[in-house]
Amino acid sequence: MSCGLVLAVTVPWGPQVRAAEPDNSPPSFFDAVASVSPGISREIDILLDHVRTSDVRLSQLSVRLQVPLLSWFQVALEVPALFRESGVDGTRAGAGDIVLGAQAMVWTQRDWPVEIDAGLELTLPTGSDSLLAGSTAMRPFVAAGVKVGPLDVIGNMSYQWLVAGPVARSGLFQSSLAVAYPLRWVAPFVELTIVKPMSGFEDPRPQVTMIPGIEIFLPWSLSLSAGVQVPVGPARPFDQRVLAFFKWPF
User: By three-state DSSP, how is residue 248 classified?
Assistant: First the structure.
């Protein structure tokens, strides 16, 4: 599970991040819960991923530190905890798989609000396979964003190689498209995601899901994004998934 989920103010309420920016500044985009937003920033994030199937409930609570090393390049460290509830073996809790990440701005246009980033995530097997963790994986990705009138549009493409763990020697291709309508205090959004198992999975059908959600802009540059992911195709990897993303720039 990887996920993978998210503004300066001059008054106590009503962030001004959407105000006019200097001409040489890249655009800022809303924070979705399943799609990676382009942009280089220093922040601490808290992420919640709760999945419910017919017989298992699995929750992942993660803390992520994201630090720019250059104006166009940042690194990230994500440390998760897992909670698994099953009717067969009860409730279990433990560490999840640590994720190391790097993201670079590869193209932006001063005269047009668009940005394209490329990145790489490395998952380390620090969790237990009894919690559906313990995997080694690599995921290169591309994240692009553009402002179209009053809308923010974000698109992602990625491929994840699962090198070792419960589903070793397998691959997942994922693409997503997220659209938001940012207002003064909130940004309602919707995301469409498609996950295609390429190898190593019993069900090779594409998994298509929709996520209606909302980002709330809070005082002191904080923001909270939340959404509910539901399958809309014949392949149903879960019954319901709740995603949340709390962001604290510093």
Answer: strand
Which residues, 6 or more positions from 89, have their beta carbon under 8 angstroms from its beta carbon?
A: none
Burial 58-79 (b: 16+ CB within 10 A, else e): bbbbbebebeeeeeeebebebe
Contact 117, 38 (CB under 8 A): yes
pTM over 0.85: yes
Domain range summary for the chain, segments of one domain joined by +: 43-249
How is domain 43-249 classified at the architecture level of CATH? Beta Barrel (2.40)
pLDDT tens per residue, range 147-203: 999 999 999 999 999 999 888 889 999 999 999 999 999 999 999 999 999 988 888
82, 57 Cβ separation under 8 angstroms: no
Phi and psi angles of residue 191, each rounded to the nearest 5 degrees, phi first? -125, 140
